[in-house]
Amino acid sequence: MQTWDQIINTALLGTDKRPLAASDLPTELGEAAAVIQHHTTDKEEQFLQTAALVFNYRQCGVQPLKKEGVTIDKAAAEEKQYCSVLAMHTLKDILDSESNSLLQFWLQQCNEKSRIVTPDLVPLLLDIGVQQKKLQNAVVACCGKRGEWLSRFNNEWNFSTASTNEELWQTGSPEQRKMVLEQLRKDDAAAARGWVQQTWQQEDVNMKIELLLLLAINIGSADIEFLESLAKEKSKKVKDIAWWLLKQIPEAPLVQQYQQVLQRSVTVGKKGLQVQLPADIDEAIFKTGIEKLSNNKEYTDEEFIVMQLMQAAPPSFWETQLQSTPDVIIKAWQKDVTGKKLLPALVQAVVAFKDQRWATAFMQNSHVFYIDIIPLLPVKEQEHYSIKFIAQFADNIIEHAIKREDTWSIDLARAIFIHTAKSIYQYNRSFYSRYIHCIPVGIVTELYKCAPAEDHLKATWNNTSEYITKLINLKKQTIQSFND
Amino acid sequence: MQLSEEQVFALAPDESSKKSGRELANPAKWVSKGVNELALWGECQGSGSKPYQAQVDLVNIAFKCSCPSRKFPCKHGIGLLLLYARNKADFTNRDMPAWVAEWISKRSERQEKQATQKEKPVDEAAQAKRRQAREQKVSDGIEELLQWVKDIIRNGIISIPEKGSAWFGNMARRMVDAQAPGLAGMIRNLSEINFYRDGWQTEFMDQLLRLYLVTTGFKNNDTLPPLLQQDLRTWIGFTQNQEELKEQSGITDTWLVLGKQVTEDDNLTVERNWLYGVGSDQYALVLQFMVRGQGAQLAFTPGLFIQAELVFYPSVLPLRAIVKKQLNTEKVQQYKGFANWQQVAEAETSYSSTLPFRSERPFIIEQVRPVYYDQQWWLQDNNNALMGIKSGFKSIWKLLSLSGGEALNMAVVGKENVYEPFGVWYQQEYKIL
C-alpha cells in the first residue's frame, strides 16, 4: 500500500526532516486528514494521528491475495495400507525411547508387512532419515507415497525421491548407494560387480575403497579380471584392497603362484616341519603386498614371508600338500615348534577363505580359542563355543555377538548379561538399546538370574533390568502389532 | 470423554512429564483402575509400599494425585489418561472407591460454596480514593509516554535498532511505576521486535501506533462509549475483578478448544486457550496464569469439546473470557467455519473498524490448503485466494503432510493477511499442529 509506505518513509527520517504531505494520502481520507490538520498544529501529533488513521485504513482494507495459477500437486494415492493404531502407538513410544535399533526393527517389520505410517509422522521420520543415514531406505519405504511427495518440498529429504534400487545406486547418497550395492552383492554378485565397473571411473578414491570392501561379500573367480585390472590404479590403498581381495579367491593366479612357492618352501622332514624358501623365488611376488623383512623378532624373514603366503592359500591346499586331514594336521602342528609358529597364519587363511570344515576342526582340536573363527561356524556351534569361552574372552565374544543380525539364544543372552551386569560402565544402557535387535524377548523373565553378587552392582543391574524390560516390551509390542 | 493421545500430551506440563507419563501408560503399572461419567481413577505402583492414587475429574477436567510431585498434572495423571485413551475397554470398574468419591463430592461442594459466597462489604469511599489516585498516576505516566512517542517520531525511527533493550526497559519500568502494566508490556513488545528482519519498520510502527491510540484514547475517555472505555482500561492494565465478572450471566455453549499457546516469562507461565462456541458461533480467549509450582485451574487440551458457561470481559469486540462454570466434556460436535478468505477479510474489516488497536483473533476456515508461492508458504482457499502463513511456523511440514495437496478445514489465529495454523480436521479428527 503506497500510502503506508509514505508513512513509513516519514517515520524513518522523522517529522523534522520529512513532513507528510497531504498529497501522500488517498482521497477517501482527505476529509478526516483535514479535521486532524484543523485540530492540532503540533507536527508530531498531526503525523501520529494521520498515521493511526492510515494504519486502520490499511488493516480494514486487507484483502486476500488473488492469484491464479498457484497450485500444488496432490500426493499420489497410497498403494500400501496404513499401520494399525497399536503399531503407530508403538512407533511413538519407540521414538520417545530414542533407541535407533528399536526404530530400525520397527521399520523393518513395517516394511516386511508392506505397511506405511500415517501422514502426521512422515516429516518426523524423514528428519530421522537425514540424521540416521542407515535408516534412510527403510524410512522411505515406510513413508509411502506421501513421503515421496513431501520430500519434493525439502531438499534435505531428497534421499527419499528414488524409488528403485537401480535409481538409488545412480542418484542416492553414498550411504544409500553402499546399502543397495551390499544387498545386490548378496543376491547377485555378478550384477553388483557390473554396477561398480560401470561407475568406477567417476568414483573418488574414498568411494572406490568403500565399494571394493563390499565386493568381499560373495567374492569369486568371476571377480578376478576386474580386480587384476586395478593394478593400474593410482591410489596405493585401492591397489592394496584389490590384492587383499584377490588373495581370497582360490582360483586367482596370484593365489596359485603363492601355493607353488609354499609347495617348495614348507616340507615335513625328520625334525618335523621345515621352512626354506626356494633360491629361485620369483621376485614378482614381492610386488603383490608381500613384505620381505619380518616385523616380529620371533619370526625369521623366511618364516615371515611364508606366513604371509600361507594367509593367502586356501587351507585345503595343506590337505593335498601333506596328504592328511585337517584334524591330523592341526594336532601335529600344535606339537611341532615350527608348526606352532605357523598356526596363526593358517587360522587367518581359514577366515579369509571362510572354510567352515577347517573352522570346526580348529575349534575341536585346538587348545587356543580363535575368536575370528567363530563367525564361520554354524550358529549353534558359535553359541556353544561363545558360552564355553565367555569367562575368559567375554569382551571378544560380545564384540562378535553384536555383529550378528539375528537374535541370540536365551542361553547366550544370559551368559552375556552375566558378564555385562558386572561391567556397568562399559556396558551401560546405550549398549542394550543399540543391540536390542539381538536380545531375545524371552530373556525378560531371566534378567534377575544375571544379577551380580556385589550389592552395589546389584542395585544398578535392577535399574538396567527395568530399562531392558522396557525395550523388550517395545520389541514385543512391535512384533505383536504387525502380527495382528 | 474422548481424549486422543495427542490431546493427553498437550496437557503435560513439560517434556519429561510426557516421557514419564508414556512409561506409566502400561497396564502392569496400575494396581486398580476405573472410570464412570464423573471421574477416572487408578492406583499406580511406585517405588513406595503404597500405590499412588491418581484421579481425574472428568466434568471439570481437574487432576489429583497422592504423589509428592509439584507438576500439574503429574506423570501419574498423564499416564492414567494415556492408558485410558489407549485401552478404554480395560477400565471396567465403574464404582468410585471412597478416595475418589470423597474428592469429587468435595469439589462440587466447593464450587457451590464459591457460587454462593458473597464478597465482604467494601469501603466505597476508600475504594474511590484509591481509584482516583491510580488514575492520576496513570494519566501522569501517559503524558510522559506520549512525549517519548513524539520524540521518536520527531527524530525518526531509523536509529531505533541501535537503541538497545535498556532504552525501552527504562520507559517500560516508568509505566510500571505509573501503574499501567499494559502499556509497559506494549513497550517491551516494541523492544522484542527483530530489527534484523525485513519489514521491521511496519511492525514497529503498528505497535507504536497502537500505543498511541490506546494512550490518546484514554485521555479522551469521557467522550467514548462505555464499552470502548473498558477496552482502553484493559489495554492500559486496569484489572477486572473476576469475581464480579462471574456474577454476570455468560454464554453457555459447547466450546471447542482450538489451540493452546504457552509462554513462560521468569516464573510465570501464561496459557492462552483459544475457544470456539459451536452454538453461539463465538470465539473466545481464556487466559490462565500459573506461578511455577502452582497447579492450573483449567486443563484444556486442543480438540476437546467442553460444555461450559463463559463470561466475556466487557468490550466492543468481546474475545477474552473466563470460565464461570464447566459443566461437562462432550463428544465431537459439528462446527461452522468461515467459507473462504473473503469472509475472513470482511470480518477483519468489521473488527478493526470497531477496535483499531485490537490484537489477533482465531478463525476456523474451511477447505484451505498450503501452497508455496513467491518464496513463502500460503493458505489457499477454493477461490484461489491466498493468505500468508506466519513466517517461522514450526509445523509447516506436518501441515503439508496431513494435507497432501488436499484442502482441509483448519483453525488459525492471526490478523490482516498473516495467519498461524493451530490444527486441522483430518479424517474427521482434530489434529494439533
Strand residue content of chain B? 25-35%
Strand order of the largest sheet of chain B: 5-6-7-9-8
The coarse silhouette of chain B is globular
Q: What is the total domain count of chain B?
A: 4
Q: Span from first to last CA of chain A?
A: 61 Å
- Please estimate the helix content of chain A: 55-70%
Total beta strand runs of chain B = 15
Structural class computed from helices and strand pairing of chain A: mainly alpha
Total number of helical segments of chain A? 23
Based on CA atoms alone, the radius of gyration of chain A comes out at 35 Å
Largest interface, Cβ cutoff 8 Å: A-B, 52 and 58 residues
As laid out across the biggest beta sheet of chain A, the strand order is 2-3
Alpha carbon gyration radius of chain B: 24 Å
Shape of chain A: elongated
Pattern of helices and strands of chain A:
HHHEEHHEHHHHHHHHHEEHHHHHHHHH
Tell me the major beta sheet of chain A: 2 strands, parallel
- How many domains of chain A? The number is 5
Note the beta-strand portion of chain A: under 5%
- Count of helical stretches of chain B: 12
> Which series of helices and strands of chain B comes N to C?
HHEEEEHHHHHHHHEEEEEHEEEHEEE
Mean pLDDT of chain B: 89
